[in-house]
Write a structure and sequence with these properties.
Blueprint (H helix, E strand, L loop, with lengths): L2 H28 L17 H24 L2 H6 L4 H32 L1 H5 L3 H19 L1 H6 L5 H14 L3 H6 L6 H16 L14 H4 L17 H6 L31
Helix pairs in contact: 1-10, 2-4, 4-6, 6-10
The structure holds protoporphyrin IX containing FE.
The site of protoporphyrin IX containing FE has 26 residues, from helix 2, helix 4, helix 6, helix 7 and helix 8.
Length: 272
């Protein structure tokens, strides 16, 4: 393997990882007001919702598949009774549809960004470059599928590349490089595009991934109510009983239009 390839697959991954971690922390600490998804949903809804949902669902699936497929050692799959062929099939039939969904969502979103005047005016060059880079990484990723299908019995390339990825994260670049022998160019190009996504991540709107509001999924719910005309207002007695699970307390004041939390606050917790 020549020096240039050694640089691309033995050193470039560390450059990307270092920039990814350090610049993301720097931006979070020093430029918090630029930390946003810069959603263009308000500009025009159109195809936005479904395309955005399909894109996000797909890319989460692809990311999960990459973490499990590349970073979990083959021996762990064997211990769980999952043979090499099944591992490769999981990547093909799990990752393939997820990659396809991401591609469709991203194509619609990019088309909208390029050709919808209002959305275009609020986009900067970075928005377009990140879309292009994601498209390149996705197309190259999908282009690996025929080769992975051809070698599905052994999952040969998947194993070689997961050994490469594991050695990279364990800071063993020489061992990582030794696993790349005979790997077809399409995988290598895809890896370069994928690593470059990490490299430019901190400088783009992608940073919003780090503040995904996962807490909403487990947060108790609130119900906002306005007293309907003619309905009895809560009395002081009702309020003294406090809100029960599923019940709603309305304010005693005739002027207030409030809002009652359905669950009680935990000690130290404040309701918005
Ligand atoms: C360090 C970065 C990355 C590496 C090392 C990497 C590696 C790989 C490998 C080895 C495969 C083939 C898996 C198989 O045999 O089935 C693959 C497939 C794929 N990759 Fe990546 N990838 C990276 C980043 C990305 C990124 C950022 C995206 C999305 C934008 C992406 C999208 C895909 C897709 C859609 C496929 C085909 C479906 C699948 O197997 O999941 N990859 N990638």
């Amino acid at each position: 393997m020549g020096y240039f390839e050694q640089f691309l697959y033995g050193l470039y991954p560390y450059i990307c990882l270092t920039v990814f971690v350090m610049a993301t922390i720097y931006r979070f600490e020093r430029e918090p007001y630029t930390w946003q998804a810069s959603s263009s949903q308000m500009m025009r809804k159109g195809n936005f919702s479904w395309a955005s949902n399909v894109f996000h669902l797909g890319i989460l699936g692809v990311a999960g598949g990459h973490v499990v497929g590349l970073l979990v050692p083959a021996s762990a799959f064997h211990v769980l009774g999952i043979p090499d062929k099944a591992h490769q099939m999981m990547e093909l039939f799990g990752g393939g549809p997820m990659g396809f969904a991401t591609l469709i969502g991203l194509l619609v979103l990019t088309y909208r960004r390029l050709f919808d005047k209002r959305v275009r005016r609020t986009s900067d060059r970075g928005d377009l470059w990140i879309a292009v880079l994601l498209l390149v990484a996705l197309v190259l990723g999908m282009a690996t599928l025929p080769e992975s299908w051809r070698t599905r019995e052994s999952g040969q390339y998947l194993h070689q590349l997961s050994a490469w990825a594991q050695n990279i994260v364990l800071f063993r670049p020489s061992s990582a490089l030794s696993h790349l022998a005979g790997v077809p160019m399409v995988y290598k190009l895809h890896m370069l595009a994928g690593m470059t996504v990490f490299l430019i991540f901190p400088f783009t709107r992608l940073v919003h991934v780090c503040s995904a509001p996962i807490g909403y999924l487990v947060q108790g719910y609130y119900q906002i109510v306005r007293p309907a005309a003619g309905r009895r207002r809560a009395t002081a007695e009702d309020l003294a009983q406090g809100p029960g699970e599923g019940s709603v307390a309305a304010p005693a004041s005739p002027d207030a239009q409030l809002v009652a939390p359905v669950r009680s606050a935990k000690p130290g917790e404040t309701h918005p």
